[in-house]
Amino acid sequence: MTARAHITHPAIILLAAGQSRRLGRPKQLLERDGETLLTKTVNAALGIDDAPMIVVLGAHAERCLPGLTDPRLTIIQNSEWSEGMASSVRCGLTVTTNRFPETDGVIIIVCDQPGLDTRTIQQLIDLQRTTSLPAAAASYAGRLGTPAIFHVSLFPALLKLSGDRGARQLLQDLGPQVAVLPFDEGALDIDTEEDYQRWISGT
Fold it and tell me: Taking the model in full, what pTM does it have?
């Protein structure tokens, strides 16, 4: 029987440290209607009341910093960004637990999902609280992924992640301990120029 996991003080960790190798330019700074992907994602997360927000930068930190002016943000730089997404999870979680010790859960989001909004993040929080499962994650394209929320009991497992798969492997390992939130819009993530053109054209 799965122990009930209550998250009352979640923090949000935005992973924005990637090199955007396939795209050839920083995906964080791609624009639509005068707003970058990074700013759009930050604004969606800031719509969650009383949740500290940590932004993990890396490969293009100097170019991303000018757009991150909200005083509610905690901005950090991951010097090990080249390892992959897991290094940013570890970096973000370490800073979160040090600076916000009351945190009993983290929501991991990425900046290349233009369909992400405040409502979806809140639905994920509500789902976890309703089910009391140790994790809840979005489902799209036949798999689980971000956004995802993890109870403090899973922090040790998050800190052991390595490579470029982020927390997806942990979600798979948890199986029925993960509450699932359908999020069809999550299937569009911006990895290539073609993805970007699909987003800006709305197709």
Answer: 0.93
For the segment 59-90, what is each residue's pLDDT rounded down to a tens digit? Answer: 888 999 998 999 999 999 999 988 888 999 99
Record the tokens describing residue 125, joined without a space: 């929080």
Q: How many domains does the chain have?
A: 1
* Inside any domain, residue 1: no
Q: Which of these, 105, 82, 93, lies nearest to 56 by C-alpha position?
A: 93
CB 56 within 8 A of CB 96: no
User: What integer pLDDT is reported at residue 41 of this predicted model?
Assistant: 95
Domain of residue 193 covers: 10-201
Per DSSP (E only), the strands in 17-160 are 31-32, 35-36, 53-57, 73-77, 105-110, 135-140, 143-151
Region of 196 (left: φ > 0; alpha: ψ -120 to 50; beta: rest) is: alpha
Structural domain includes residue 19: yes
CATH number of the domain that residue 72 is part of: 3.90.550.10
Coil, strand, or helix at residue 73?
strand
Assigned domain for 111 exists: yes
The answer as to whether 25 is a domain residue is yes
Evaluate if residue 147 carries a pLDDT over 50.
yes
pLDDT in tens, 151-195: 999 999 999 998 877 788 899 999 999 999 999 998 888 888 888
Rounded-to-integer distance, Cα 22 and Cα 193, Å: 8
For 88-124, give one letter per residue: b (16+ CB within 10 A) or e. bbbbbbebbbeebeebbbbbbbbbbbbbbbeebbebb
